[in-house]
Every structure is written in C-alpha cells, then in structure tokens.
Amino acid sequence: MHAFKPYDETTLLLNTARGDEAAFRQLFDANWDRIYSVAFTFTKSAVIAEEMVQDVFVKIWLNRTQLSTIRKFSDYLFIIARNHILSVLRKKIMEEPFTDHLADYFKESCNLPDQQLLCRETEALVLQALEKLPSQQQLVYSLSRQQGLSLDEIAARLSISKNTVKSHLSKALHFIRQYLHTHSGAVAFTILYCLVSGIL
C-alpha cells in the first residue's frame, strides 16, 4: 500500500495505471465531489448522483492503463463524467416526472443572471443551425418542434409520406446536435436544455 501525501496527481495516475488500488482511491477521494455536485444538480437525487459517481469511476478504473498518458486528470474526468451523465439523463428524459423536474430546473436557471446569457446563446445557436438547413428540413422541423404537429399531420399538410417526414426531421435534428457540439462552449448544459425544451 502506498501513501501519496501531499496529493501528487502525476504519481497517482501512474500508479493507478499499474493497478494500484490505493492510488486510485486517492484520486476518487480528491475528485468524486466534482461529479456528484453536477449529477445532483440535474437529478436532485442523492442516490442517482452517487450511482453516477460510482459508474464514472468504474469506467476510469476499467480503462486505467490510459491514465499514464493523461496530463490533466480534471479534463479527462470531465469528459468521462459529461458523457455518462448525458447518457443517463437522455434515458431518464423519457420519464415524465423527471422531465418536469428538469424543465423546472432550466426555467429557474434561465432566470439567474449568470445563466441568462447561456440560455440566450443556446437559443441563438439553434436559430443559426436552422438557417443552415435545407428549406424542407427547416419546414418539417418548424412544424414538428415549434408547432407541435405529429408526423402524420406534417405528412398530410406537405403531401409527402410519413417516412419522408421522419427522414427530414432526423437529418435536421442530427445537424442541429452537431452544430451545437461544434459551436457551444457549454455542451452539456446546452444539449440538456434543448432536450427538455423539446428542441431536440
């Protein structure tokens, strides 16, 4: 067993990469709260937040050999955590009570001075993405996401097949997601905001 005090991240990463569980535990103890606070903010559930933390660090342990090449663990941790939290929230977004909670969260967040700019920037980015879509995709997206029409209703209105509507909408959503990923400086917040708002 090794004791690395004061906290020496480089040594901890190298030893964890070699399978040292004590070094891994120190990394966990020093960084778990960063993931927990973000997860709890979105879920308002200590149980779910703790599960997310455990899952993230399990993934890191299973891929521990990569740690020997990591220069800044906080950046590596953020990417792993962001992807996992988004994945979990995308699945839970289908649960109505949870969706209502997230909607309330973003409604409150967008009333906070430090989040208002981000919300406005997110909406502006979506509009920019829409302007770059082919006209038919723009129209289908507008009818679906902004006017709330079903695929059948859109097909009837535009005199095209339901499958064609689905194809246009799928392509539009894919482009918007990619645009947000490329142009947003706060991807996790932006994507979640769009999911809850019904944009994506």
What features would you highlight for this structure?
single chain; 200 residues; mainly alpha; Rna Polymerase Sigma Factor, Chain: A; Arc Repressor Mutant, subunit A; 10 helices
CATH superfamily of the largest domain: RNA polymerase sigma factor, region 2, helix turn helix motif
Helical fraction: over 70%
* CATH fold label of the largest domain: Rna Polymerase Sigma Factor, Chain: A
Structural class: mainly alpha
- Taking the alpha carbons of the first and last residues, their distance comes to 49 Å
Shape descriptor:
elongated
* CATH-defined architecture of the largest domain: Orthogonal Bundle
- The total number of structural domains is 2
Task: Report mean pLDDT, rounded to a whole number.
Answer: 78
Task: Let me know the number of strands.
Answer: 0
